[in-house]
Amino acid sequence: MIEIKNLSFGYGKKKEYIQLINSINLTVQDGEFIAITGENGAGKSTLSKLIAGLLKPVEGSVLINGKDTKTESNSSIAKQVGFLFQNPDRQLCCYTIRDEIAFGQKALKLGTEQEIAERTESIVKKFSFNPDEAPFTLSRGQRQRLALASIIAVQPKIMILDEPTTGLDYKECMEIMHQVKELNKSGTTVIMVCHDMELVLDFADRMIILSKGTIIADGKTEEIMQQPELLARASLLPPQIIQLQLALREKFSQKHPELREPPKDFTPEALAQKVASAAKKVTAN
Length: 285
Fold this sequence. Notes:
Layout: E1 2-11, E2 18-28, E3 33-38, H1 44-51, E4 59-64, E5 67-68, H2 74-78, E6 81-84, H3 97-107, H4 113-126, H5 140-152, E7 158-162, H6 170-185, E8 189-193, H7 197-203, E9 206-211, E10 214-220, H8 221-225, H9 228-232, H10 240-252, H11 268-284
Parallel strand pairs: 3-8, 3-9, 6-7, 7-8
Antiparallel strand pairs: 1-2, 1-4, 4-5, 9-10
Helix pairs in contact: 3-4, 3-5, 5-6
């Protein structure tokens, strides 16, 4: 579990001090899939780095399973929290894919040489990598997959993703996200910093909106997505499927009360089924 208490953070001293995070309180339960969203400069990446222990609070605290990140060593935190940077090149440093996947395990002393070798080969097969290939000969999307694979190899209980699909095409994006969702289903807590509302709707169960370093919304993703005025406060737009559902509700809900309630799943198929159901009632009348 992650407990954030009265967390504040900024840079500079006295008159030059810039406040980035302002008195945030937040609890993340084990196994949640949370998206942190907000406008540029809202403090999303800063908050994620504070949770990962890469930055230390100016005020307040971040507790990872009861342990304060202020006093815990970075290596101790890294055993529990994996961090995927927006740019994978910031965390790739070895000459081969095999060495890259093994690197974090060796640094954190996660088993014997034999255990690390076996775990590395298992990850290589799972991601269909050529273990002897050089990381920087890979495409941008493949390097992102490799960075993710190297974190999975460490088996953290918490995974933090900072804009994990930036610069990826749709296929690469889905490959990354389905791997992440698989981890979440197996019990890994996932915190994803993301501005892509379609992605947030498809994968995150809980959504947090930051604006100017404070939390302005925290709740179920589907419920927050249906509040365009709230999203607008953070310069966000609902996904197109939500916009369509809201437009249909506004225009036709008086004659078709069933359109007031959202579909169970926010997919084109589910919305089309709901509209078709309303149309059948009109025909029957």
